[in-house]
Input
Amino acid sequence: MAVKNLVKMNEQLIVTLKVGELKNIIDESVTNALTKVPQKPEEETLLKRKEVAQIFGVSLVTLNQWMRDGRIPCHRINTRVFFKRTKVMEALNTVKKYGRR
Output
């Protein structure tokens, strides 16, 4: 960093910098501050049976069969069934859709 004039007046520091040098100092300070902020983990989105059936293009009966077969992992809360979006997207690549040949 090239400091041209450095004068100490009443506990204040006066520095002359080029615009590019000032931008670099600000960029480094902001980057350091942002890396120290703890990142909040993303919350998992839960999907209902109808939403998952629409994603796969199948009926609820077929979805129930896939749940029983373990093709799509599900979570039960009391009598309701939910699916994690990330697991549904993973299963989307592995589950074959039924269709006529």
